[in-house]
Design brief:
The chain is α/β, with parallel strands linked by helices and 283 residues long. It has helices spanning 2-36, 42-59, 89-96, 115-122, 131-146, 173-181, 193-196, 228-241, and strands at 64-68, 79-82, 102-106, 124-126, 151-153, 185-190, 210-214. The longest helix is centred in the first third of the chain and has 35 residues, at 2-36.
């Protein structure tokens, strides 16, 4: 009975979370589409996306702990580098970081029906397997920083295979960008997103508190591209240092059936001296 009630609770909460994610988007879609058509309106589109993120995270009923180790001065452009662990990473970043943000996402996001074209026009998309696309994205990011608009990049490139435990290999682009533009680099750790909505087949939603940590900015003044590998390793170590051992792993799928008890492992019988190759021969 307990398993059935837990299963029903998971289904109800997943439905609730999905409703509050989809409904505000559907209601505001005409406005979002119109704002996405003109670059001069993208600031307002971002404000709308921030409000959308704040609304559905609030309606999900989860406490969100935002830790800011050392805030940058207002209006200071920077490169934010964050671990990638869940489908809700972008909404949480939009909720926690003030200002008009730009974000670099994989090109497949722009192909998502209905929402994708809006994202593709308002933010930076990149095909990481295409050198021309990577170069174009870096140019867009550099122009964004020159205009005073911070850029968020996931240096892993995709969601980690072991979120909250191990980081995927960091790419160099974000660190070369911060050095070339001469702006601070801010590492970000999101410690619990994978416990709420993991990257699994289907949709799996579990009620979980969320936490985002904005670490102390790292200055890039005086650095050259030769320093990018060291900067990358430093940021990687800072982000991983905030992982929580109690949050390791992703939630298991729910089932209304009680799991069958596993039979105890059978122990192999100890070999008798007569049959053992290690037995001493008779004298």
């Amino acid at each position: 009975m307990r398993h059935l009630l837990r299963y029903i609770g998971h289904r109800l909460y997943t439905t609730w979370a999905t409703f509050w994610f989809v409904t505000p988007f559907v209601v505001t879609y005409p406005v979002q589409w119109a704002l996405s058509r003109q670059p001069r309106w993208h600031r307002h589109l971002h404000s709308l996306n921030r409000g959308w993120s704040q609304l559905f995270i609030w309606m999900w009923g989860m406490p969100v702990d935002v830790v800011k180790k050392n805030q940058l001065p207002a209006g200071q452009p920077c490169v934010y580098v964050a671990n990638h662990s869940s489908y809700i990473d972008i909404p949480l970043l939009f909720k926690a970081i003030p200002g008009w943000l730009n974000i670099m996402g994989k090109s497949s996001l722009a192909r998502v029906p209905v929402w994708g074209p809006i994202f593709g026009r308002a933010y930076i998309v990149v095909d990481r397997h295409n050198a021309m696309s990577r170069g174009r994205a870096m140019v867009q990011a550099r122009r964004s920083l020159e205009a005073g608009r911070p850029v968020i990049i996931f240096p892993e490139g995709s969601i980690s295979k072991k979120p909250g435990e191990q980081l995927g290999e960091f790419k160099d682009g974000a660190f070369q960008l911060a050095i070339t533009a001469g702006v601070p680099l801010v590492p970000i750790t999101m410690t619990l997103n994978h416990r709420f909505m993991p990257d699994v087949e289907g949709l799996r939603v579990r009620y979980s508190p969320l936490q985002i940590i904005l670490h102390e900015p790292i200055s890039t003044v005086g650095l050259t591209n030769a320093d990018a590998p060291a900067l990358k390793q430093r940021a990687c170590a800072i982000i991983a240092s905030a992982f929580r051992p109690d949050a390791a792993g992703i939630p298991a799928p729910s089932s209304w059936r009680q799991p069958k008890p596993q039979p105890p492992a059978r122990q192999a019988a100890a070999p008798s001296p007569e049959n053992s190759e290690l037995a001493l021969p008779n004298s």
